[in-house]
UniProtKB/TrEMBL annotation:
Residues 5-232 form the NAD-dependent epimerase/dehydratase domain. Pfam families: Epimerase. SUPFAM superfamilies: NAD(P)-binding Rossmann-fold domains (SSF51735). GO terms for molecular function: aldehyde dehydrogenase (NAD+) activity. GO terms for cellular component: cytoplasm. Transmembrane segments: none annotated. This is Nucleoside-diphosphate-sugar epimerase.
Length: 313
């Protein structure tokens, strides 16, 4: 059955992939943009409205006017080369912006809200691959702890309301067109410049999510799935010692440098060391078993190779 879908974050890496998929399903799409100029070349939107998720009065107006059945929050601030700044922007957008979207949706009588989150927020626990019942690392140090607490607040605002159905999709490291892993992106340039090393005694795991798989999960939960959280990741969490050298070879970059843990702590920022040495991967079992969702890119190996034109067909 066609739905009226309101999408915040329509110009982001997931949003641009999502909108055409919604159109293909026959849904009516209203895209929220911060400025009208960003509407140029935006595929899949039936209507474009201008507003900011941090401006609650304006948000109430545009959501009420759109009369959506579902509100989809795909906002993030992960643009530009400075990860700390991007993290701080995203934390504010997720906590305050998504709270505003939920409030505006509830006032407009919307029945379901779908919001994005991240599996990187899980508290590291040994060598385990983590599921949705694993705790978030709300007492993490520094800016990362601030971001995780914002994530926890956002998720609670979405799933704890009794007047609407809230679904949170926790993505892995997003890759695909216009992401940090694509040519010219932050990770791409770090690896080309030997700025992202291996840590010899590190066991950090990364779960990856192709932007197409993130978009397909959003489409899936527009009408299906109980209130709650779902990991949207591929089938193969990867140690940094596995994916980083493979990625470097695919882009024709130098082999990553190798540091000891002490050297890494002395030369790298805390968050990069955490990602390389103790971050945990996640399982997609809940989404697979309850909704039958399957990633179109089951492994980052084929996904990376396709991104760089190395996969046959």
């Amino acid at each position: 059955m066609p739905l009226r879908v309101f999408v915040a974050g329509a110009t982001g890496v997931v949003g641009r992939t999502l909108l055409p998929r919604l159109r293909q399903r026959g849904h009516h799409v209203t895209a929220l943009l911060r400025t009208a100029g960003r509407a140029q070349g935006l595929p899949g939107a039936d209507e474009v409205v201008v507003g900011d998720v941090l401006d609650l009065p304006r948000l109430r107006q545009v959501v009420r006017h759109a009369e959506p059945d579902v509100v989809v929050a795909q906002v993030s601030g992960f643009r530009g080369p400075d990860y700390d700044d991007a993290l701080a922007r995203t934390a504010r957008l997720w906590e305050d912006g998504t709270r505003n979207l939920v409030a505006a949706a509830a006032e407009a009588g919307v029945r379901r809200v779908v919001a994005q989150s991240m599996v990187a927020a899980y508290c590291p626990n040994g060598h385990d691959v983590l599921d949705e019942d694993s705790p978030l690392w709300i007492d993490a140090p520094g800016r990362w702890g601030e971001a995780v607490r914002a994530v926890a607040g956002m998720e609670s605002a979405v799933v704890d309301r009794s007047d609407l159905e809230g679904v949170v999709l926790r993505y892995g490291s997003l890759y695909g067109p216009n992401t940090w892993y694509a040519p010219g992106g932050l990770v791409h340039e770090q690896v080309r410049g030997s700025a992202l090393p291996l840590v010899t005694d590190g066991v950090g795991l990364t779960s990856f999510t192709h932007v197409e798989d993130a978009a397909s999960a959003v489409v899936e939960v527009l009408t299906a799935g109980e209130t709650g959280t779902y990991n949207v990741v591929d089938n193969e969490p990867a140690e940094c010692a596995e994916w980083l050298p493979a990625y470097a070879r695919m882009i024709g970059g130098p082999a990553p440098l190798s540091l000891t843990l002490d050297q890494a702590r002395a030369q790298l920022d805390w968050l990069t060391v955490h990602r390389l040495t103790e971050q945990r991967g996640a399982t997609n079992f809940r989404l697979r078993e309850t909704l039958g969702w399957r990633p179109g890119w089951p492994s980052w190996r084929e996904g990376f190779a396709t991104m760089f034109g190395l996969w046959p067909g």
